[in-house]
């Protein structure tokens, strides 16, 4: 699959998914470069909390909640544009960094840099997913039925 070249190749929901799984240190480092470009930013929320983890029982076809997951979330606004970030775990800085990237994209600021960052993170995530699936596949056992 060819790497996306524009933000149009990263719809908002896909972009947030990439940012939610992005390496925290790389995300924070990139977001630092955006702060001077964004102007005055108001922080509406920056907190941790628990969210329910929904799952689907494939045998019964019903949904259920597996349990709770600790998340960090941030909501910010600048020039009337609101942005959001939510990441698994207790890393408020990474949630804020995610919201900063979301704000930059929504405001049309540093789009080239944001696209490059998203492309690199998406490629790293695809490689990690492929590696994980290969390791899982290596444990598959074929059983004969009588």
Structural write-up:
By secondary structure, the protein is an alpha+beta fold. The protein is built from four helices and three strands; from the N terminus they run ααβββαα. The protein has helices at residues 12-21, 24-38, 92-107, 111-137, and strands at 42-57, 62-78, 81-88. The radius of gyration is 18 Å and the shape is globular.
Question: Which features would summarize this protein structure in a list?
Answer:
146 residues, alpha+beta, Double Stranded RNA Binding Domain, 3-stranded antiparallel beta sheet, 3 strands, 28% strand
Structural topology:
Layout: H1 12-21, H2 24-38, E1 42-57, E2 62-78, E3 81-88, H3 92-107, H4 111-137
Antiparallel strand pairs: 1-2, 2-3
Helix pairs in contact: 1-3, 1-4, 2-3
Rounded Rg: 18 Å
Envelope shape: globular
Largest sheet: 3 strands, antiparallel
Strand content: 25-35%
Task: Compute the separation of the termini in Å.
Answer: 41 Å
Strand line-up of the largest beta sheet: 1-2-3
Number of strands: 3
Structural class by helix and strand composition: alpha+beta
Tally of separate helices: 4
Give the mean pLDDT.
Answer: 91
Oligomer: single chain
Tell me the number of structural domains: 1
Low-confidence stretches: none
CATH topology: Double Stranded RNA Binding Domain
CATH architectural designation: 2-Layer Sandwich
List the helices and strands in order: HHEEEHH
Residues in helix, % = 40-55%
């Amino acid at each position: 699959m060819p790497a996306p070249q524009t933000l149009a190749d990263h719809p908002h929901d896909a972009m947030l998914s990439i940012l939610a799984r992005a390496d925290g240190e790389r995300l924070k480092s990139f977001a630092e470069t955006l702060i001077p470009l964004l102007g005055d930013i108001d922080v509406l929320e920056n907190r941790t909390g628990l969210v329910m983890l929904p799952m689907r029982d494939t045998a019964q076809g019903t949904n259920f909640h597996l349990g709770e997951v600790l998340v960090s979330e941030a909501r910010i606004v600048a020039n009337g544009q609101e942005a959001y970030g939510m990441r698994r775990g207790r890393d408020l800085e990474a949630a804020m960094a995610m919201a900063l990237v979301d704000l930059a994209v929504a405001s049309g600021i540093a789009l080239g840099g944001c696209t490059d960052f998203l492309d690199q993170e998406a490629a790293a995530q695809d490689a990690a997913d492929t590696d994980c699936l290969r390791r899982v596949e290596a444990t598959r056992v074929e059983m004969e039925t009588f």
